[in-house]
Structure formats: C-alpha cells, structure tokens
Amino acid sequence: MTRQTIGNPLSWSAQSLAGIGRGLGEAVDGIGSHAMTRPKINRIGPADLRAALRAGASDFAALRSDVIAAMVLYPVIGFILAVWTFNAGQVHLLFPLAAGFPLIGPVAAIGLYEMSRRREEGKETDWRAALSTLRGRVLGPVLMLAMLLMAIFVLWLFAAHAIWAATLGPEPSVGLRAFLQDTFSTSAGWAMIVVGMGVGFVFAAVVLCISLVSFPMLIDRPVGVPVALATSLAVARENPGTTALWGLVVAVALLLGMIPFFAGLIIVLPILGHATWHLYRRAVSYPDQTARSDG
User: Fold this and answer.
1) What pTM was computed for the model?
2) What residues form the membrane-spanning segments (predicted)?
3) For the segment 114-156, what is each residue's pLDDT rounded down to a tens digit?
4) Domain parsing of the chain, residue ranges
5) 181 φ, ψ to 5°?
C-alpha cells in the first residue's frame, strides 16, 4: 500500500517530465524545415486584398466576443507604454512606439489565424481552441519568428532614439507640448522627422516582407521557419505592388485604431489578423491542399 502511494507520484512526475521533454523536442524540431518544397506562389491584386478584408470582417463579426476578449490586452499594453514614455521623460519615444506597433502586429494575431482556419474548416472556434494550436511542432517556429520580430522592434526603438539624440537631443523636452513645438518649429526637428520616416520605412518594409504569409503558413502547415520566410519573401517579390498596397492598408488601419488611446485596436487588429489569413490562402496554393492535422 505504501509502495503504491509513493509510486504514483513518482510515476506521474516521470510521465509529466517525459511529456514536457517530448513537447520541447517537437518544438525545437519544428524550427527546421522537413518539407523543403515551397508552395506555388500566386499573383494577387487589389481585388484579392478587398476580398481578404471582407472575409476578415466576416470572421470578426462571427467571432467578435471571443476575439475582443483575446485582443483587449494589446490596447492596454499600448496605453501602458504610452504612460511610461511620459513618466520616464521619454516623450520622444512615443511616436516610435506607436509607429513600431505594426512590427509586432503579426505576433499579436497568431491566435486569429487559427480561429479563421478553424472557422474555414467548420471546426470549433473560440479563443481556447485558438491557443491550443501553440503546441508541439507549431510552438517552436512561431516563437522563433516572434523573437525575430521583437528583435527588429527593439532595434527600431534604438534607431529612433539615436536619430532623436543626433537631432533634437540629447536633452529631453519638458513635456509633450514642448517636444511637439521643438519638432515642428526647428530645422533639427524636421531633420528628425525626415530621417526617422526613412529609417522607419526600411524597418516596416523588412517586417512586411518576412511576415506577409509566414505566420499563417506556420499555423497551417508543418513547415519550419526557413521555408515560411522564403515563401513570404517570394510572395512579396512576385507581388511587389500588392504587397506595398497591403502595407499601406495595414499602416493606415493601425494608425486609425490607435485613436483614441489605442482603443480602436480592439476592432482593427482582429479584422487585419483574420484578413491576413485569407490573404495567405489567396497568395499560395498547395498541390494536395492537406492542412495541418490537429492531432
């Protein structure tokens, strides 16, 4: 009787550790590419963007309660960061933080891709089901790609700070009003705007090209990061005009969503996230059309 009492916890612990080990092994193994053949890259145009946005809005309308519950965190984070810039005397980082939000937007929408995928296949669709996709072979590559985008976001903030220090800085402005006055009434301020917009455009273009279809592809297919990135770059290369137009749509929508106090992101982010899934489905096609198994 004693052996059974002691043995059960030991056995349970061993099984749990083995399960964790298998999960970590699958996550790491999923980062690499086993299926090296990329899908067919399709030509897409403005009509495809409109269709993707309509489908994204349809998904949002059907799933809005679960989606809003999942997305409400991001406006809160944005508001907290905005308050921090004021309290820490880093007002010059307020606009770079807001402008840099699209750099990590694809990470915020990971669960939305899965919800659109499940709704498309007629499966159970809620935020719990969406989060369930982040396991096994999907978890590793998604985290790796998310870390890449976060690193780019941090580099953008460092670049924005360096541009400010070389123009208006290094002494911080006393409050937002003073900063805006210095920005728009001095040659140094306009230099900061021009250089900052140019550098920001480069960062945004890089993220747009590498994340155009890579995250939805990792959710949909058992491919690794190299194939997903290569496919996303190929879609952007094959459809440069449409990719640029999509980037403009995303930038304008996120800018509007940040008014007032990031609250609009509760609606904008879900629609863009769902639309990105449908854009992925239009941009690439597979010979077998066999999606990832849920296991």
Assistant:
1) 0.77
2) 67-87, 93-113, 142-167, 187-211, 248-272
3) 889 888 888 877 777 666 766 667 788 888 998 999 999 999 9
4) 32-285
5) -65, -45
